Amino acid sequence: MYAARARASLRGWGGVGAMAVLCALALAFVLLLPRTQQARQDGRTAGPGVAEATQARASDCKDSDAQKRTLSPSGADGPTIDAIKSRTGAKRKLVVGVDQNSYHWGYRNPNTEGAELEGFDIDLVHRIAADILGDPDAVQFKAIPTSQRIPAIQDGRVDMVVRTMTITCPRLDEVAFSAPYFKTGQQVLAPKSSSITGYDDTLAHKKICTASGSTAYLKLKADRDKGTLPASTDISTTVPNQLDCLVRLQLGEVDAVVTDGALAASQAAQDPTVELKGEAFTTEYYGVAMKKDADDLVRRVNRILVGYRASGWQTSYDRWLSATLGKDSGASKPPAPEYLRKS
């Protein structure tokens, strides 16, 4: 583009002089390109009124602070929100990737007309839709498996994913996250009669099931590679959806399931023959996932979460999760949000 403009402006010049100028411009472009790319990678933008970092790269991230790598709240519309609002007719909805098989998180209740989607994550989706589109029911739900959460965002199939999705450093290189809305940790789920006692040596020679693309599988693999998990532990069984692991466990095809404690507790509520074994062995935070360049949407969701934590979060917890996680929600409440830089 720069070369084409230069050629147009150089008409009528001497050939040698024109060539010299073009060469100089081309050299300058080559020298400046890495700097401009680096500036974009560093997350600095030159937009009017914005002097703030965007989502950080995984290389700048530590596991202990991944949940802090998000943008400060704002109620301002931007290109992403404008595009959502510009949808007309029946398509004027927020498109959200959710689960439909996680009991009390995102699941279809067969006892309701049309087997409506219900749960803690679903409540949050309705709150976001109410703020952005003025209607809590202006939502198109898309059920997606665990392994498709990130591709669905990147391909533009959904505006966001609200599906018990843990904020991690590697994922920050692929999608943007809101501030955390729930705190949990990995736990072991096994039959009550099992000799497994937790995430320890009793997993030796046991077959473990995890969801594809989950933080549970990555944790097991990393620990087995470094020797903190018995080398004989079989972690080869992975499934598209977390609930599939419970089915494998019920069929006797695996000895245990490793997943977020919040999900494991809900699975235990569905099957009285299984139980959580041991304490959580990680600390993880759920966030709303969006496209990397959807800064205005990230900021809006973060503003919504500020209000939701103050009014709405506890009501939803009491309704959906208190029976499985306990009436005291203190262990599940996310920390006070921290942002990359204040506005």
Output the keywords.
five-stranded mixed sheet, alpha/beta, 343 residues
What does this structure look like?
With 343 residues, the chain is α/β, with parallel strands linked by helices. The chain is 36% helix and 16% strand. The chain is built from twelve helices and 15 strands. A five-stranded mixed beta sheet has the order 5-1-6-15-7. The protein has a five-stranded mixed beta sheet with strand order 11-10-12-9-13, sandwiched between helices. The protein has a three-stranded antiparallel beta sheet with strand order 2-3-4. The longest helix is centred in the N-terminal third of the chain and has 27 residues, at 15-41. The protein is globular and about 55 Å long. It starts with a helix and ends in an 18-residue tail after the last helix.
Précis, in short:
With 343 residues, the chain is an alpha/beta fold. The chain has helices spanning 2-9, 15-41, 79-85, 120-133, 149-154, 169-172, 215-226, 242-250, 261-270, 295-310, 313-320, 322-325; strands at 94-98, 101-102, 106-108, 117-118, 139-143, 160-161, 176-177, 182-184, 186-191, 207-211, 234-239, 256-260, 274-277, 284-286, 289-290.
Molecular shape:
globular
Largest sheet: 5 strands, mixed
Count the strands?
15
Output the number of helix runs.
Answer: 12
How much of the sequence lies in strands comes to: 15-25%
Secondary structural class: alpha/beta
As residue ranges, the low-confidence spans are 1-52
Strand order of the largest sheet: 5-1-6-15-7
Helix content: 25-40%
Order of helices and strands: HHHEEEEHEHEHEEEEHEHEHEEEHHH
Mean pLDDT: 85
Rg value: 24 Å
> What is the terminal separation in angstroms?
35 Å
